[in-house]
Amino acid sequence: MSTQAATSPTTTGRGTRQRTKAGGRHGIWSALQPAVALLSVLLLIGIPLWMVLITSAKPQGEALNPSLTLPSEWQIWENYSQVFTDGRITPAFFGSLFIMLPAVFVVLLLGSLAAWVLARRATRGNAILYSLAISGIVLPPAVVTVVLLLRQIGLAGTAIGMIAVYVGMYMSTVIFFVTGFIRTISVELEEAARVDGARPIKIFGRIILPLLAPVLSTATILICLYVWNDVFYAFFVIGGRIDTLPLNLFQVASAGLYLNNWHLIFAYVVLMSLPLLLVFMFAQRRIISGVTSGAVK
After folding, report:
1. What kind of architecture, by CATH, is found in domain 89-294?
2. Cα distances (Å, whole numbers) of residue 93 to 118, 167, 245, 246
3. Which residues of the chain fall short of a pLDDT of 50?
4. Cα separation of 282 and 272, whole Å?
5. Displacement of CA 28 from its chain's centroid (Å)
6. Chain segment 252-296, per-residue pLDDT in tens
7. Contact status, residue 280 vs residue 221, Cβ threshold 8 Å
8. What's the pLDDT score for residue 264?
9. Boundaries of every domain in the chain
């Protein structure tokens, strides 16, 4: 007893000092976290965005070597009006909408239906199917195989073929988000509807689908960003047949219209990014809530 009484103050003192040191390190890191986050955003997003905006307002001579300096003479109206006049941006805008809207609608509908089945039927086979379904997130499709397959079925170079490619590419994303969200929905809601005589399609449309609004909003924004900015797959599938904004920028730049005209290229990039940037600004709360709720399980 005396030995324990003699040693316990020392042990307690060491534990207190260790906790004090750990708490001090934690307090320092907590104080530095906002500054580190702001610095990361500045380096990764702020500086490239500033360069794009500033270069899009410069004369051609100053824009040959893009930099962060302000232009000696602002040419905002001249540059952006020339992009509208010579860049065929209006038909490319509607071409992007013509591809994006049906692709997003179909992938959300089919993906949410598949996620509902995978979430509610907990069998070993469905677990394997779920693993295969979400593997597309990290395994991109082989573009050569996709193009050859579309040629075999007669859909190469068509809007339907491009829509089918996007649906197949981003089905994994929808299934991943929606499956986790559906698992948080009470099964009793569906059982009560079955007791009342509702069929599966009616249960999904009347009960499940309205509850999926947050996670579907997130998936919509993400897929719209992917499809809107895609140039790689669109170049091989519909290149030269249907104009989209990224394809049109590639074509006019490679044709020499924007050659060494970085002020026009960056002005085009700003106009191309503006629609989805506005949507993202107004829907950012839904995106965050959908990500946190859809990845719970």
Report:
1. Orthogonal Bundle (1.10)
2. 37, 20, 6, 10
3. 1-7, 22, 294-297
4. 18
5. 34
6. 777 666 667 888 888 898 999 888 888 777 766 666 655 555 444
7. yes
8. 86
9. 2-55, 89-294
